[in-house]
Amino acid sequence: MACCQLAPRVAAPEANRAACRLAAERAAELGAQIVILPELANSGYVFHDEPEARTLAEPLHGPTTTDWLNLAGRLGIILVGGICELGDDGRLYNSAVIIGGSSLRASYRKAHLWDTEKLVFAPGGEPPPIAEVDGLRLAVMICYDLEFPEWVRLPALAGAELLCVPANWPRLPRPGGERPMEVVRAQSAAAVNRIFIAVCDRVGHERGVDWVGGSAIIDPDGWPLAGPEPGDQERILVADCDLRAAADKAVSERNDVLADRRPELYRSLLEDHGLAGDGGLIAGGPEMAADDEDGVRWQGGGGTR
């Protein structure tokens, strides 16, 4: 798989699509079967305001997704990337898509908005989707979503082998010689769930904002297989991954990171915040299937959820 760490330009969608196209082609030449692009790869990130973002937003099946569908079909790859979406409801969403076999397999709207994103986007209200493509089980979430352990646990429980994370990590101060905390949290999320996590960050100074450039492909033990190489360089990170390894949740002869859970002791965490029970996020909506042994409800099958 490959993470294409690019420098999208705000308000330059044609140039951004061309850059994504070239990077995906190069990644495929390097042997990547799964290619991940950054968050808001079509529009750039640092909008002046909501009206500017609205001029750059596209319907889910707009020019960027159409271009990526053609690209994935031509290259024979699975492609994951972030877009500035104009929803059918007229609201703007920070979204991501999973494309495989020339078809849109899943779409997702960022649920946890960072800082001024709250002035531009509406938050998504659905859990991270699982898409089954060529026998692989992929999930997707976006940037700040990764910092919520409960959110990462959902696709892990649903059987995801790889969590793809388009990101735009703004660079924050850190002590000299330390790895960016965003990367540390991604490593932790991979290890505690024993799944692969591929974060595709961005670079390029944009309207006063610099970026971590912390793209990384992380194995189920939490160790990077490629990256991070923080800085301001565009690069393509490639790693060979046997996603079947994510099925092994054992961390010792007698310990399993999912089987050892005690959900009956954690229930109050949800109830105290109004997230459990009828109409709650976990309890689900009209398309949910049967409860699992923990009382968590899952929608059957792959695709958008």
In short:
This protein is an alpha/beta fold. The protein has helices at residues 13-29, 50-56, 63-75, 149-157, 181-193, 263-271, and strands spanning 2-5, 34-36, 78-86, 92-100, 103-109, 130-133, 136-140, 162-166, 196-200, 216-218, 224-226, 235-238, 250-252, 255-256. The two termini are 24 Å apart.
Your description of this structure?
The protein is α/β, with parallel strands linked by helices and 305 residues long. It has 2 domains: 2-253, 4-Layer Sandwich (Nitrilase/N-carbamoyl-D-aminoacid amidohydrolase), CATH 3.60.110; 262-305, no CATH class. 22% of the residues lie in helices and 22% in strands. It contains 6 helices and 14 strands. It has helices spanning 13-29, 50-56, 63-75, 149-157, 181-193, 263-271, and strands at 2-5, 34-36, 78-86, 92-100, 103-109, 130-133, 136-140, 162-166, 196-200, 216-218, 224-226, 235-238, 250-252, 255-256. Strands 5-4-3-2-1-12 form a 6-stranded mixed sheet. Strands 6-7-8-9-10-11 form a 6-stranded mixed sheet, covered by helices on one side. The longest helix has 17 residues, at 13-29. The radius of gyration is 18 Å and the shape is globular.
Furnish the topology, listing elements before pairings.
Elements: E1 2-5, H1 13-29, E2 34-36, H2 50-56, H3 63-75, E3 78-86, E4 92-100, E5 103-109, E6 130-133, E7 136-140, H4 149-157, E8 162-166, H5 181-193, E9 196-200, E10 216-218, E11 224-226, E12 235-238, E13 250-252, E14 255-256, H6 263-271
Parallel strand pairs: 1-2, 2-3, 7-8, 8-9
Antiparallel strand pairs: 1-12, 3-4, 4-5, 6-7, 9-10, 10-11, 13-14
Helix pairs in contact: 1-3
